[in-house]
Amino acid sequence: MEFEPVIGLEVHVQLNTETKIFCTCSTRFGSTPNTNVCPVCLGLPGVLPVLNQNVLKKAIQASLALNCHIASYSKFDRKHYYYPDLPKNYQISQYDLPIGYKGFLDIRNNDKTKRINITRVHMEEDAGKLIHSEKSSASFSYVDYNRTGVPLIEIVSEPDISSPAEAHRYLEVLKNRMRYIEVSDCNMEEGSLRCDANISIRPTGSKELGVKTEIKNMNSFKAVEKALEYEIKRQIEMLESKQKIKQETRLWDADKEVTTSMRSKEEAHDYRYFPEPDLVPIIVGPEWVKELKASLPQMPDEKFKQYIKKMGIPDENAYRLTAEKELALFFEKCAELYDNYKSLSNWIISEIVQYLNKHQKTIHDLKKLDPKSFVSLVKMVDKGEITSRVAKDVSTEVIEKGTDPEKIVKEKNLKQVSDVSAIDKMVDDVMAEEPDAVEKFKAGKEGVIGYLVGKVMQKSKGKANPKVVTELFRAKLK
Amino acid sequence: MQLNEMKAHELLPLLKKKEISSTEITESVFKQIDQRKRVNAYISIMKDRAFQQAKIIDKKYSQGEIKKEYIAGIPMAVKDNICIKDFPTTCGSKILNGFRPPYNGTVIEKITRHLGIIVGKTNMDEFAMGSSTETSFFGPTLNPHNLEYIPGGSSGGSAAAVADNQTILAIGSDTGGSIRQPAALCGVVGMKPTYGLVSRYGLVAFASSLDQIGTFSRDVKDSALLLNVIAGYDPNDSTSIKSETIDYTKGLEENIKNLKIGVPREYFIEGIDKRIKARVQKVISDLEKEGAVVEPVNLPHTKYAVADYYIIAPSEASSNLARYDGVKYGYRSGSSGSDKDLLSMYFNTRREGFGEEVKRRILIGTFSLSSGYYDAYYLKAMKVRTCIKNDFEKAFKKCDCLITPTSPTPAFKLGEKTEDPLKMYLSDIFTISANLAGIPGISIPCGKTDEGLPIGLQILASHFQEKKMLKLAYQAEQLLKKEM
Prior knowledge:
The complex is a heterodimer of chains A (about 475) and B (about 475). Chain A has about 475 residues and is an alpha+beta fold. In chain A, about 40% of the residues lie in helices and about 20% in strands. Chain B is α/β, with parallel strands linked by helices and about 475 residues long. In chain B, helix 2 (about 20-35) packs antiparallel against helix 3.
């Protein structure tokens, strides 16, 4: 029998406000333990929470960016469970009236667009962090409350995801949108994006849902994909060997690459939700929603469509350019100066994106990068003033220092040489130095010509026009 | 008359004229506290701080620096569930053993700003859960009128301290009658303002949607004075209300001609002490003679109030008290190393740290909020609460204030009801509705039983109608004075 997975994701995104959700403590990451705390976030006897208006604003912006409706009336609730990292032993969250509901994200997978529906977006406070002693014999643990009260939104999808790869794409698109609207960095390593997955399998084509498991503890998009793949395999094997799947919460073990049972349905908490009496209901007027909606930047998929349809850029280039808002904006600035969009997109991806990947940087780090000088680099290649090889050599300085490439080319004398008389001698020299390759070519091995051209390029320090070189070889070896 | 037996509004002109000093008043208060330790009104006293403050205030008076002297230089007691920076706050519980808050509650800030002198923290039922101050970890407070009797609760310490001249004024909290009922049983004035009028920031929560800080005093004018100090919007309390500043001491003397007084039928039922009924009805007819218009009203959902309260209050309490787990502050079990893991530390801490009544309410509340029971209990209770609120709204369309007895019985003997929680709960039968509806209420003394136990009369008004309520209370008080 064939099986298909049914996947829903619960994503926690940390909102990047200066201060916490219910007090004025800093949200800074990495401070000395228990320094960003006050009576309110420590939940001391007698304190009361007061909602940070910026959290509400960013939660609404995030909900809008996820195509959600905004609740005109919503409220906070208390979710109870005992754990030392939760100072009040309840978390202030939203239960039945979340701020955002009924949204969706369109994702592209294998050149097809698929809509993943979003059930809800709600606000809540983060918990602290337990720090366990390295000695296993220690009779106590430490707790750091700095993260307590840091604002989160939880984004719950419908079980519309039907493969681990789709889950990965969904997370990418979601992260992208949150970064576009600048409500979060969505950095999984620092915990500003966290993801739990609900997964079940069923016979392909069936409408009924199988018994689901919830997977926790995945700390990268890749881990989500891997954990889901593992869990699908495990569940299929269980069904095929006529075993029953138990509804339970499982933990992903990244080292062993397996999921293990954490708690069964019977051990699940009864959170005893009830409306938070210390906070008043949240009333959001239509004018404010309208205003916030209007203030949202163009979203990546709109840009994607625009790049393909109006600018004629290849799909893959458009996808990669829109993956990062700053990159897309850089591209758009360049496009205002030069209208060979395809060439621009190629060069941005081959030079800038590669540079960033290689140096593990983001475009924010490139403070001196200047659209004008980058455009002039691309233009020089397109006009045949320099070779691609020279352009690649020069690009690092253009990217890092923003230097005008014309100046570099002039100073280092790197202009493309197309003059036959200047190249002719180099071609003759290479023919003399590489008799074997020459023989092979003459014997009909066409491919060898690339090797010979490369040798000339080396001699010319990349300046020789490869087209002219090729033509000369062909003429001489005819 | 000793200084500690006087009222704030009597002392203030003397202070201003420099005929007496704040230090002298404070001395007389502490002398009484020392002499009457048996009453057990206080859990802790703040003698050094009080005298330091008195000295500073005396200097200010002598240099003419005090412009608005609402409570400047007047000693007051604070219920031990309101946080004062660096001083123990116990809530009458073992579980807060050693806890010293690092911050001041908003009312403490306001009292300090207005130069009130806090002399100590008063005894209370554990976490304000009780009607007799017998559930305190620090032993019961005794009724100053007869030491064999309870003072009411949960703010029994504050009520007894005012009644026994161990302070001039006191602050309490009222979740289901915890100010008004002990005020009635101790023969003093106790007022619970409208929910949202006084900031709850710094008041250790029992039931957040019902808790309200209020006043104790020896007459209505002093309560109005203290309300002037503590009322007002607080950005630290989202449930506090932005409103204009009102001087509650103004207009008390205005006549009550044509003021409409409603007398709810449901508050004069079988089982209420006959002498209480007679006293309250006498006052009502006297007020009618003064020109007030008296008419009966119905509050049909009154009979559900106690049951409703004992779902909502314990539910919120079970949540609010979840934080006392031994991890961060207060009592932690296992000093002998008996806790083998986190779970046993939680269990033992809470088992040893909380008293019986608190545990009972945590259990009731936890049950009411449990999945599968929530709709039948908590949700239902919230709907009934709306019905009770609507009853009052209807009544206040017809009348300005309501008059009822504060408590169905006078003070009872120590231990008389401790074995029967349901009987104890009925002690708040006339006060609970005001908390469920969020409306203000005040209890004033209206005579005594043959045994010399005080009787209280309650006046209720619509939301933020404290001024009207205080005026009627003041007029009733004047009539009662004439009668004496």
